[in-house]
């Protein structure tokens, strides 16, 4: 019994000792942080205006650059985070001068070394610095960080690769769209867009990727890149991908690319037998193609029973320019003339109605309804265009 009590006392003392130690460590770290911040502020303050002068591209005689390039290591360590932050906000000559300043202090080499550090914050900051510097030597190490255990590091690495702009990394960015090491699709797509059209050939094979997410995002990206070379593969995706969302994005991409070969596939996609979610997107894409051959199909779609399809068709006609607007105006005029003619002959029509066959009567009413529906969408589109005109 006494042994048990002794063990309990020892355990409590041990726990108390650990708690006291944690409090001391926390307090020391806090004090150390305060001291470090004050020291950094003291070192940064005299040279901070020089950094801002360079960012404003006001260092005409180069004195600010020369002074900052010659500061001691301790001062540079204090000012470097500010220089990196400013670098992400400037363009042109000021950006070039700040990059030369960072390189003169070996910032790229230190960032490469920090990419392998234990702390995720340090790795993320290093990846950001390398991306801002646009260092070609950092492409391979940053590509490895796409598999980092930290989602923050993976995201910053993807952005950095986009900033560097080497099209050869396009394929390495795709696996992070799905799976265990995922990066938000908006980040990956933005990085791919920064790589530009030269990245398109590496993306096309991914239209057959087993991942639905990868196929969908790649289809959308190829459209945003206006990748003409991807038109035929996207047409195949539009016709045959097993997932509707991928087909929808392929239709949208084909409209953005504007390749004439997409006309007939888009006409087929907007047909009544296509999925409801695909038809309005295909109608919009037909308008973006800019082809006069799309006018008959789009005018016919104004009478579609689906509001989304009819509305998309009216806006697509407006998007076609003068030829589309002329078609809308003709529909509106025909409907007005038909309404006037109908009112005059309505009584006669009533007198003859008893002699009409039921089938002819139904066809007549359906035709009137179709014309009225198309005229309504045409009028609405024209009114919207007039209201939005400057």
TrEMBL record:
User: What segment(s) does the record annotate as region Disordered?
Assistant: 338-370
InterPro entries xrefs:
ARM-like (IPR011989), ARM-type_fold (IPR016024), PBS_lyase_HEAT (IPR004155)
Q: Where is the composition biased (Basic and acidic residues)?
A: 346-370
Q: Which GO terms describe its molecular function?
A: oxidoreductase activity
What is the protein's given name? Answer: HEAT repeat domain-containing protein
């Amino acid at each position: 019994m006494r042994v048990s009590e002794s063990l309990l006392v020892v355990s409590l003392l041990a726990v108390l000792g650990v708690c006291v130690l944690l409090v001391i460590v926390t307090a020391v770290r806090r004090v150390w942080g305060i001291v470090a911040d004050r020291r950094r502020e003291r070192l940064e303050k005299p040279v901070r205006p020089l950094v801002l002068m360079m960012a404003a591209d006001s260092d005409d005689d180069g004195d600010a650059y020369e002074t900052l390039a010659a500061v001691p290591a301790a001062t540079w360590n204090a000012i470097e985070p500010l220089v990196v932050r400013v670098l992400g906000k400037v363009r042109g000559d000021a950006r070039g001068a700040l990059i030369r300043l960072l390189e003169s202090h070996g910032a790229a080499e230190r960032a490469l070394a920090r990419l392998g550090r234990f702390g995720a914050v340090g790795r993320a900051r290093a990846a950001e610095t390398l991306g801002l510097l646009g260092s070609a030597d950092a492409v391979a190490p940053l590509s490895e960080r796409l598999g980092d255990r930290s989602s923050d590091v993976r995201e910053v690495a993807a952005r950095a690769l986009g900033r560097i702009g080497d099209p050869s990394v396009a394929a390495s960015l795709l696996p992070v769209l799905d799976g265990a090491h995922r990066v938000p699709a908006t980040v990956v797509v933005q990085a791919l867009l920064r790589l530009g059209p030269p990245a398109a050939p590496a993306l096309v094979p991914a239209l057959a990727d087993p991942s639905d997410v990868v196929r969908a995002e790649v289809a959308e990206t190829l459209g945003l890149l206006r990748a003409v070379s991807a038109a035929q593969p996207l047409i195949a995706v539009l016709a045959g991908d097993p997932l509707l969302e991928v087909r929808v994005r392929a239709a949208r991409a084909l409209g953005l690319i504007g390749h004439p070969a997409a006309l007939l596939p888009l006409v087929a996609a907007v047909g009544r037998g296509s999925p409801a979610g695909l038809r309005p997107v295909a109608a919009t894409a037909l308008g973006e193609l800019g082809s006069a051959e799309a006018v008959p199909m789009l005018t016919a779609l104004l009478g579609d029973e689906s509001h989304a399809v009819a509305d998309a068709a009216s806006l697509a006609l407006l998007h076609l320019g003068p030829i589309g607007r002329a078609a809308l105006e003709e529909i509106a005029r025909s409907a007005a003339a038909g309404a006037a003619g109908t009112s005059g002959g309505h009584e006669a029509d009533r007198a003859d109605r008893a002699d009409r066959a039921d089938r002819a009567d139904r066809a007549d009413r359906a035709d009137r309804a179709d014309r009225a529906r198309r005229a309504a969408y045409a009028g609405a589109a024209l009114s919207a265009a007039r209201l939005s005109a400057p």
